[in-house]
Structures are given as structure tokens and as C-alpha cells.
Amino acid sequence: MKEKLSEAAVNFVSGAVTKGFGNVVNTINLADKILDRKKEIANRFLPNIDNTIKRVDLLCNVLKKNVMAFTSVDYSFIKINDLKAIKQKNKSSLNVLIRYRQSLLYKYMLEFLKCQYNAWINGQHDNEKMDKPTLEIINKYILNQDFYPLSNADLKNNLAVSSELVETANSILTGDRTNFDGRFMFILTDEQLMSLLFSNLKEPTLLVLNNQNIDPVINNILCDNSTYSELTTFGNIVTEFSSDLKKREHLYIINAILAAAAIILGLIYFVDRETWIEVVVGIILIGYCGYKTIQVSVEMEDIYELKKGTFDLYVTNRFRKIAGYEPKQVTMTKKVEESNNTIMGAIMGGILGFFFIPIPGGLLIGALICAFLCSGDSSNPKGESDGSEYKDIKYGMMWKAYTISFALCALIIYMIRSI
Q1: pLDDT value at position 340?
Q2: CA distances (Å), 147 to each of 144, 161, 182, 194, in order?
Q3: Beta strands of 216-366 (E only): which ranges?
Q4: Backbone phi and psi for residue 382, each to the nearest 5 degrees, phi listed first
Q5: Which of 118, 173, 112, 157 is nearest to 138 (CA)?
Q6: Nearest-10 crossing angle of helices 399-418, 362-374
Q7: 222 vs 332, more confident
């Protein structure tokens, strides 16, 4: 019986291996057929592609000259009265820039196809010389080659955009200066170039949070750029983050003051106590409330930094997408609230409070105390993130801080009435 089973097993494995090998052979044959077809296509189109590239290259050169003619315009002394004429001129210059960008993309695509055709003729499925062109590559070329070339220092420091451009953007968008040329006007008006700039700034939202002194003419031009409108929205969200944190910090400061008052009153109150149990319980309660006040305050700061960092990644990816980039994934800590123990503690505490705390509200007091004691810390698993889950990162429920306030106030009132 065992011999028959072993023989059956061997036959099964042999059959599977043979079938698998057959699939590999079929796949190779299919790949060979595809490559033969690719060679036919390459031999058909390769002879004419050089002429097409030359014609497109000539068009790119003409359009580049037209674009660069706009970059030499000086916008140092523009006034509100000039705004209508400037916006009309910007429409014309943007049309030229868009045609130039499309022509460059077409040229790069043709050069990529030429590399592919040569690879197919040489028996390769893909070329190893050139990646498939994207808008990211084109926009980086326009920004870093045509408008603001990278200096040797920029290249040495591996900067993605020119330090001259970053300095210009920071000074103009915060209102420190108003003089600029046509190169920066293109960035003020073109969504993709502005997005490329913002995606390479550490905290682009600071530009709209510190723009109180921005020139009104520049601000009016920026309002027509949807990328800057998005940045303004992101800046408002950052302001909400900070405002929410400050509101919570105020409560933690109050709790710290209450804890200090409880310690001072405790020194007076516990001196005359005859029973050591009351003294020990009081010291433990005051110490625990003080410890939790500090712990929760520190945790709020950590959560704010996590939320802000995740949101900054989301903002960067949003601008990367507009500029033609792929979203960037980063390994980040993800805050996960563990609420099961808290819920069970509240239920058990409510039951105990109802039966063993013989005062009005005993159920609520018991539920709060046990939920507070049973609440677990948040877990912090690592995971890949593109920043989109920043909304899911919560500061935590404020009931913990309010419970500390309630306990400290009750203890202070009790000690004052007993002194």
C-alpha cells in the first residue's frame, strides 16, 4: 500500500514539474514570437524616426526662443493699474510654455522609442539607456536647465531645484521683495512649475502662513493659480492643527496647576492625619494624577509631530502628482488607538460604581475611574504611507484630561473642607 502511495506521489510531482517546465517553454516561445514581432515594427519605423526627431527638435528650439523672450521681462515696478495688461500677457506666455512642454515631451518620447527599436533589433525587450519620459522629467528640465540652472554648489549638495529659485520664492511669496523677472512669472502662473517648486520645499505651507506682507499685485496673480489656492487650503489646515493643540495644552496647564495646588494642600492636610491609610491613598492619587498629566501632555506633542509630518508628506505628494511625479511612499509610524480595554473598563466600572459608590452619580464616577485606569496606550506599528491618512491620526479623547481635572478638583475641595 505504502509503495503504491509513494509511486503515486512521485508521479504527481513529476507530472507537476513536467507541466511547469512546459509552461516555461511556452512562455519563452511566446516571448520569442513577441520579440520577432517587435523586430518587424522596429525595422519598419526606425529608418524614419531620425527625421521626425530632427523636425520636432527644430520646433522645440523655436518655441524655446519664444519662451526665453518672455523670461527677460522685468516685473520690478508693476502696479495695480498694470494688472489687466499683465494677465493678458501671461495668457500668451503660458500658451507658448505649454506648447514648448508638449513638444519636449514628444521629442523625448521619440528618442525613447528610438532606443526601444534598437533594443528590439538587438534581441532585447527593453532598452537600458533611457527611461520612459514623463512630465516630471520635462518640468525638471524646464526649471533646472532653462529657467534656474543648478549651480555647482547645488549639484554638490544634491538639490532638486536651484538654491537661487528657493531664495527667490521665499522672499517674494512672503513679501520681503517685489522685484523679479519673467522666469519667476512663469512659476507664479504655471500650475506644474509651481507644484514642482513646492514639492521640493521642506515646509511649503510656511509660505502662506507668513505672507502677510506679500505685494497685492503678486497676490492677485497668485489667486489665478490653482496650485497656490491648494497651498492656501493646506496652510489653513496646519493652522487648525496648531489651534487644536493649543486648546488641549491649555487644559494640561490647568491640570498641572491643580496638581501643584493639590501637593501644597496635601502637605498641610496630611500632617495632622492620624491614619496612615488616608495619607498613602492621598499621596498615590495626587502622584498618579500628576504623572498622567505629564504623560498625556508629552503624548499630545508626539501625536502633533506625527500628524504634521504625515500631512507634510501628503502635501508633497499632492504637488508631485500635479508636476508629473509618482507619489512617494515613506515608512512611518502609524498611531492606532487601543480602545477595547477602555470600553470594558467603563462597563465594569459603571457596574461597580452603581452598587458600591453610595452617592448620586456613582455609576458615572465608577465608569470614568475604571475606564481611565484600564485605558491602554496607543500602539505604534510601522507602515508605508503616502500621507493620505493624516485625517485618521487623532489626538486622543479629551475625557482623560477632564477626568484628571475632576479628580484633582474633588481632592482639593475635600482637603480644603477638612483642614
Answers
A1: 52
A2: 6, 11, 9, 13
A3: 330-333
A4: -90, 150
A5: 112
A6: 120
A7: 222
Residue pair 352/222 in contact by the 8 Å Cβ criterion: no
For residue 121, which amino acid is it? I
CB atoms within 10 A of CB 230: 18
Query: Cell 504611507 appears where?
Result: 385
CA distance 342 to 344: 6
Q: How many CB atoms lie within 10 A of CB 88?
A: 9
Its sign, for the CA torsion 63, 68, 69, 70, is positive
DSSP 172-209: HHTTS----BHHHHHHHH-HHHHHHHHHTSS-TTHHHH
Q: Which residue has the cell 517648486?
A: 197
Strand, coil or helix: what is 211?
coil
- Decide if pLDDT at 294 tops 90: no
- Which whole-number Å values give the CA distances from 401 to 115, 256, 300, 366, 396, in the listed order? 65, 11, 11, 16, 10
